[in-house]
């Protein structure tokens, strides 16, 4: 029953994440991708003579002057930032991938084709002036505008990446705890034991850390509060969990880079809603490996680390609670994003939305009742 719910929730989350936010674990903040999307953003906001019926189709994918303008924008930015032509060429693949959602027109272009589009475009290029519309020729955008868009996309993508990094740190934290516990455990079985560590230090540490619970009585049942099922943490568990909670809070709250010009999103509040939704969603995902690892009776981990089964269950429960919190924040922030700034009616019909709600309910049931 328990395992079935764990895997059920994982499965539902994957389905929901597949569309809600890009769930690929690749890094988004890589220079070629940010450059491409920033320049695509610049020329998506310019009024061309050409218009497309497709809702989100970018003119750079289907209108040659727009494509040439974008290539020049990327090329200039690459030079300014001191990157090589190799970085420039990597953006060709990113352009093809971005455009593949709207059209196949660019899919057969070679590097040479991209370079000749750039060179031809440069010949016909004009400086963009604020208010220009119905453009039929490639345009050159000033450096400050390009930089503003770059900053905006960088902040948006880096938020995903930093979420993955922070998730990795949480995993590394518990791995580190296991390794340290394992070292102490191992020393207990070696001649060191008699030499140094059997002395007061170990006795003190064990007496102080592993035996007493936080509130004194060992393993007293806390039956009145159903939320805190199981046993109270021992001091060892309490310290580990406290460290984890501090890390988790910092990771949820720290390192957001907002765009002062609101180039991607229409307001600061919309940015906050979306960024917090993304961060908490990525962090929620990052808990799965640990939750699964600590869920069952894991003889091997117990054997090498010397950490007791009951401690693993305690970690499992706290990780589950925080994952539920993350998922709830994710849902709330994304709902506010959709309700206030996007199409709420359409969003809640989407599969990812419905699976997300289902997963959240299932995780909630597990956290509060299992
Ligand atoms: C060169 O670019 C101009 C301006 O976008 C375009 O009208 C023309 O067709 C292009 N020429 C070639 C050979 O691609
Ligand atoms: C990079 O590409 C541009 C445009 O084709 C060319 O003018 C320049 O010489 C190249 N730079 C290097 C170092 O190859
Ligand atoms: C791209 O190349 C493939 C294989 O050569 C061909 O089948 C396809 O029609 C081409 N697509 C375009 C848009 O030219
Ligand atoms: C762009 O074209 C539209 C429709 O033809 C016209 O109403 C508008 O005045 C044009 N704008 C500029 C700045 O030329």
TrEMBL record:
Topology versus the membrane: Multi-pass membrane protein
PANTHER family attached to this UniProt entry: FERRIC REDUCTASE TRANSMEMBRANE COMPONENT 3-RELATED (PTHR32361:SF9), FERRIC/CUPRIC REDUCTASE TRANSMEMBRANE COMPONENT (PTHR32361)
Predominant cellular place of this UniProt entry's protein: membrane
Pfam family, one: Ferric_reduct
GO MF annotation: an example: ferric-chelate reductase activity
Domain Ferric oxidoreductase, first and last residues per copy: 280-369
GO biological process, one term: intracellular iron ion homeostasis
Annotated keywords: FAD, Flavoprotein, Ion transport, Membrane, NADP, Signal, Transmembrane, Transmembrane helix, Transport
Coiled-coil segments: none
InterPro entries per the UniProt record, alphabetical: Fe3_Rdtase_TM_dom, Ferric/Cupric_Reductase
Listed name of the protein: Fre3p
Cellular component, GO annotation: plasma membrane
Signal peptide: 1-20
Transmembrane segments: 166-187, 236-256, 318-340, 352-369
Cell compartment(s), UniProt: Membrane
């Amino acid at each position: 029953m328990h395992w079935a719910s764990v895997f059920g929730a994982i499965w539902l989350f994957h389905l929901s994440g597949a569309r809600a936010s890009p769930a690929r674990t690749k890094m988004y903040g890589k220079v070629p991708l940010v450059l491409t999307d920033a320049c695509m953003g610049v020329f998506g906001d310019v009024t061309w003579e050409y218009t497309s019926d497709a809702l989100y189709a970018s003119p750079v994918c289907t209108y040659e002057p727009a494509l040439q303008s974008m290539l020049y924008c990327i090329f200039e930015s690459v030079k300014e930032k001191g990157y090589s032509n190799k970085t420039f060429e990597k953006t060709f693949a990113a352009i093809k991938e971005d455009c593949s959602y709207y059209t196949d027109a660019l899919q057969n272009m070679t590097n040479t084709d991209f370079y000749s589009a750039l060179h031809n475009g440069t010949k016909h290029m004009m400086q963009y002036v604020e208010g220009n519309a119905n453009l039929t020729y490639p345009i050159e955008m000033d450096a400050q505008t390009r930089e503003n868009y770059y900053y905006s996309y960088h902040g948006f993508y880096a938020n995903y990446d930093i979420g993955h990094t922070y998730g990795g740190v949480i995993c590394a934290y518990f791995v580190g705890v296991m390794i340290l516990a394992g070292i102490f455990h191992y020393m207990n079985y070696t001649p060191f034991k008699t030499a140094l560590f059997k002395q007061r230090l170990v006795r003190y540490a064990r007496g102080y850390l592993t035996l007493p619970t936080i509130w004194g009585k060992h393993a007293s049942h806390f039956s009145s509060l159903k939320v805190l099922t199981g046993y109270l943490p021992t001091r060892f568990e309490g310290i580990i969990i406290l460290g984890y909670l501090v890390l988790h809070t910092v990771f949820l709250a720290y390192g957001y880079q907002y765009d002062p010009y609101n180039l991607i999103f229409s307001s600061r509040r919309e940015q906050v809603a979306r960024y917090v939704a993304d961060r908490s969603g990525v962090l929620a995902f990052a808990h799965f490996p640990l939750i699964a690892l600590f869920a069952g009776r894991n003889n091997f981990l117990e054997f090498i680390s010397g950490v007791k089964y009951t401690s693993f269950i305690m970690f499992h429960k706290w990780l589950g609670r925080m994952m539920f919190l993350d998922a709830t924040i994710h849902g709330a922030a994304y709902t506010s994003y959709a309700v206030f700034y996007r199409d709420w009616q359409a969003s809640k019909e989407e599969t990812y939305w419905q699976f997300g709600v289902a997963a959240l309910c299932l995780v909630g049931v597990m956290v509060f009742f299992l």
